[in-house]
């Protein structure tokens, strides 16, 4: 089918610069970041203003087209990828990337939704403040995508998920209505808190065009350490000890197994000599905005206690910024290490903190029964009860075929274990297209019914990101 008339109509609406119809330039937008799925789209639209987003939505509805909102396209679950019908256009927010305002006394930053996360971090830092959202994809993911996925990352243990950082939102609904709720208020009990509908709903309820984020004081001091864990070290008890003794200054508690560390150090040009003990390793960080606290001294004392407990074989305190950066580089390079090897089947497991060890024990036994030679890369945000329990794709096999096989068998067994511990199959990566069947399988029936009602109320004709997250009430409406 030719879409020439549609393309011209969008050009008339938002100008030549906002409409990409060259298939070669469209291609990077129609494949997910792990290259597991390729959809199709006849155009990528790049609006420059919120009224243009509203105009696009209205025209798409008149033309019977669907819309997939896209930020940096770093989603791990195909949330930003169109289906294969060809009738979904991609609305990329990348031209809407401005910092609207920093208010140092309210400690907020107001941004366009297409702003890249590092740009917003840098703007906050220039004002002496911290945007406490940090993840491996921060150089390419965009605030609208972070909101769409309710991104987590590396400092959730102190600052919470994206949801905890959002004070206000501007969004376009499926009929073109603009919700202007760019408030800086900490307190605002004036009825339904509608912004939460857009956070974590993966572009299915509205297109976020702007946001107000809460900032924190910039850390003046940080203390960072690498812990080599003894065999059988109890992660949760260790976390409790560090949390209790670090005077609420704990910002990071990241777990890594030796296999994950090796994947990262294989990629890093001059890797530091940090490694894992038999129980793995922990990257721990304390931060404070006060100049008056001796964080190194505090962390040293905490680590001394941990070593005494025999849970930690060795602990290294970063002596300067470059040692700290080297430790962080190892943690942050693990996903790239997995990718370079031949990728991984990712399991973004969430369990109550108290069940972390049970999950590791039960999952380990399950993997051994499934295939003794399977290689795992296990790491993650243990401080948040979130493990990345990834199965490495062997170097010499077809990545997609292997992923499908594991996802149809072992993955479900792992999710069953998580569910049996009152946990879930997606901690921070979302549902997207890839995990929709898991939501159907593991989701509470009442909660799913409520989600469908919300979807139907916000988007009765299933215009927005149809095929992701949840079906509306009428399954016939699926785009
Ligand atoms: P996209 O991938 O473009 O979109 C994600 C979803 O949001 C889609 O459903 C899309 O439709 C929707 N969306 C995008 N923009 C909008 C908008 N303006 N309005 C409404 N909906 C929108 N995630 C974590 O949570 N924690 C991590 O630690 C983490 N680490 C990562 C490390 C690497 C190396 C990579 C590649 C990814 C990582 N991720 C992580 C996953 C990913 O980066 C996050 O989900 C991120 O928030 C996605 O942002 P994005 O701009 O790329 O969104
Ligand atoms: C991370 O924490 O590094 C990512 O969320 C997990 C991944 O990339 O697999
Ligand atoms: Zn993560």
Automatic annotation (TrEMBL):
Q: What Gene3D superfamilies does the database record attribute to this sequence?
A: 3.30.465.10, 3.30.70.2190, 3.30.70.2740, Uridine Diphospho-n-acetylenolpyruvylglucosamine Reductase, domain 2, Vanillyl-alcohol Oxidase, Chain A, domain 4
| Record bears the keyword Ribosomal protein | no
Q: Name one Pfam family in it.
A: FAD-oxidase_C
Entries under InterPro entries matching the protein: FAD-bd_oxidored_4_C, FAD-bd_PCMH, FAD-bd_PCMH-like_sf, FAD-bd_PCMH_sub1, FAD-bd_PCMH_sub2, FAD-linked_Oxase-like_C, FAD-oxidored/transferase_4, Oxid_FAD_bind_N
Q: Which GO terms describe its biological process?
A: respiratory electron transport chain
Q: Which GO terms describe its molecular function?
A: catalytic activity; FAD binding
Cofactor(s) needed by this chain = FAD
The UniProt keywords, alphabetically, are: FAD, Flavoprotein
Residues covered by the FAD-binding PCMH-type domain: 37-218
Where would one find the signal peptide in this protein? none
Give yes or no: UniProt keyword Acyltransferase. Answer: no
Record-stated family: Belongs to the FAD-binding oxidoreductase/transferase type 4 family.
Which PANTHER family would you find in this protein's record?
A: BLL6224 PROTEIN, D-2-HYDROXYGLUTARATE DEHYDROGENASE, MITOCHONDRIAL
Protein's UniProt name = FAD/FMN-containing dehydrogenase
Organism this protein belongs to: Bradyrhizobium stylosanthis
Lineage of origin:
Bacteria, Pseudomonadati, Pseudomonadota, Alphaproteobacteria, Hyphomicrobiales
């Amino acid at each position: 089918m030719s879409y020439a008339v549609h393309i011209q109509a969008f050009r008339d609406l938002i100008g030549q610069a906002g409409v990409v119809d060259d298939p070669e330039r469209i291609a990077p937008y129609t494949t997910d970041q792990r290259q597991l799925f390729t959809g199709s789209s006849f155009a990528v639209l790049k609006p420059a203003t919120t009224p243009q987003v509203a105009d696009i939505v209205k025209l798409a509805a008149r033309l019977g087209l669907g819309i997939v909102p896209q930020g940096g396209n770093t989603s791990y679950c195909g949330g930003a990828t169109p289906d294969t019908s060809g009738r979904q256009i991609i609305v990329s927010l990348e031209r809407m990337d401005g910092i609207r305002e920093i208010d140092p006394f309210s400690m907020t930053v107001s941004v366009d939704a297409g702003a890249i996360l590092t740009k917003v971090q840098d703007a906050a830092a220039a004002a002496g403040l911290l945007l406490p959202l940090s993840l491996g994809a921060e150089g390419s993911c965009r605030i609208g995508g972070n909101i769409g996925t309710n991104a987590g990352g590396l400092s959730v243990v102190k600052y919470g998920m994206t949801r905890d950082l959002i004070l206000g939102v501007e969004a376009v609904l499926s009929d073109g209505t603009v919700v202007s709720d760019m408030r800086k208020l900490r307190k605002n009990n004036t009825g339904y808190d509608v912004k939460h509908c857009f956070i974590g709903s993966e572009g299915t309820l509205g297109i976020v065009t702007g946001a107000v984020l809460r900032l924190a004081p910039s850390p003046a001091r940080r203390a960072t350490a690498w812990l080599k864990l003894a065999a059988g070290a109890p992660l949760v008890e260790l976390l409790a000890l560090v949390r209790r003794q670090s005077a609420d200054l704990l910002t990071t508690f990241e777990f890594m197994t030796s296999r994950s560390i090796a994947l990262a150090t294989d990629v890093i040009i001059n890797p530091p000599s940090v490694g894992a003990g038999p129980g793995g390793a922990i990257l721990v960080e304390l931060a404070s905005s006060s100049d008056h606290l001796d964080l190194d001294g505090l962390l040293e004392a905490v680590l001394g206690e941990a070593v005494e407990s025999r849970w930690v074989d060795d602990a290294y305190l970063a002596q300067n910024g470059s040692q700290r950066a080297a430790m962080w580089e190892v943690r942050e390079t693990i996903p790239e290490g997995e990718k370079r090897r031949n990728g991984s089947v990712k399991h973004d497991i969430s369990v109550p903190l108290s069940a972390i060890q049970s999950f590791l024990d039960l999952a380990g036994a399950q993997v051994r029964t499934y295939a003794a030679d399977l290689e795992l890369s296990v790491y993650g945000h243990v401080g948040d009860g979130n493990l990345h329990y990834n199965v490495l794709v062997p170097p010499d096999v077809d990545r997609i075929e292997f992923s499908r096989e594991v996802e149809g068998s072992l993955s479900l067994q792992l999710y069953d274990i998580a569910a049996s511990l009152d946990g879930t199959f997606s901690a921070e990566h979302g549902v997207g297209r890839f995990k929709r069947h898991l939501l159907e399988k593991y989701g509470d029936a009442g909660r799913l019914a409520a989600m469908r009602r919300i979807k139907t109320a916000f988007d009765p004709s299933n215009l927005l990101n149809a095929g992701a997250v949840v079906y509306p009430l009428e399954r016939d409406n699926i785009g």
